[in-house]
Design brief:
About 30% of the residues lie in helices and about 30% in strands. By secondary structure, the chain is of the alpha+beta class. The strands form four sheets. Strands 1, 2, 4, 5, 6, 10, 14 and 17 form an eight-stranded antiparallel β-sheet that branches. The chain has a five-stranded antiparallel β-sheet with strand order 3-7-15-12-13, with no helix packed on it. It starts with a strand and ends with a helix. The model has no long low-confidence stretch (mean pLDDT about 90).
């Protein structure tokens, strides 16, 4: 499932994160590359231990935790601490690769299975040329260049790349999620069901004026909610 989360960051958060990381010292992006991706990776990355990286990472984590669309789409069990990269000038692309199946955080030695890969865009798409995230799936190549503050989530098993940036600079935050529900097809079903239940609840709220005060949800919504949680109970690994 390829899922866009619009406005994952609010404008003030986006501005503050950009200010923090642009003033920091960057390093070669291959520092976190696996053996296969190191040969095709040519970008810069913000060292994790820098105070600016730690502050920006905390802001991203807080924003994601409060976003219901992110939570229902990812069903996160564990999130690899967000990282930041930069494309432009001579360090301007990342060729075709697949993310490592398991990432181990150096500081905590914590393992995260990369069920979902995430890119949070931090640059106005009009400020740079190229830089599209290209994800290969069963429907062909999906070319992604979202608004600053938007997040894209896609299966970690996907072959993907970042096209060369030929003008300007592309800033992004990236990270991986180990989901409570390992299979992408199951997560998609749960996401679609949860979105449908949410829409039905909103319709019922709009019709609440015609109901007596304190009226319960309709039996249909109650049963659908039960189906959702029973499927989650069946599939979740916690």
């Amino acid at each position: 499932m390829l899922l866009r989360i619009p406005h994952a960051l609010q404008p003030d958060e986006l501005a503050q994160i950009r200010q923090l990381i642009l003033a920091a010292d960057w390093t070669d992006g291959r520092v976190t590359a696996g053996s296969q991706s190191a040969s095709v990776k040519n970008n810069r990355q913000l060292p994790e231990a820098l105070p600016a990286a730690q502050q920006a990472r905390q802001m991203v984590s807080v924003a994601l935790a409060r976003n219901p669309m992110f939570v229902t789409g990812a069903l996160p069990k564990s999130v690899y601490p967000p990282l930041f990269n930069r494309y432009g000038g001579e360090s301007n692309h990342f060729g075709d690769h697949i993310d490592n199946a398991v990432r181990t955080h150096a500081a905590s030695a914590r393992h995260v299975r990369t069920d979902i890969s995430c890119t949070l865009f931090l640059s106005d798409p009009a400020s740079y040329d190229g830089g599209e995230l290209v994800v290969q799936d069963t429907y062909g190549e999906q070319r992604i260049k979202f608004e600053a503050g938007d997040l894209v989530m896609y299966p970690g098993s996907s072959v993907h790349r970042v096209e060369p940036v030929t003008r300007g600079e592309r800033l992004a935050c990236f990270f991986w999620i180990e989901s409570m529900v390992r299979q992408d097809a199951q997560r998609r079903l749960l996401y679609d069901m949860d979105m449908a239940i949410t829409a039905l609840r909103q319709k019922e709220l709009q019709q609440a004026a015609d109901k007596p005060a304190g009226a319960a949800e309709s039996p249909e919504v109650v049963r659908l909610t039960g189906c959702y949680h029973n499927l989650l109970r069946m599939w979740a690994e916690v």
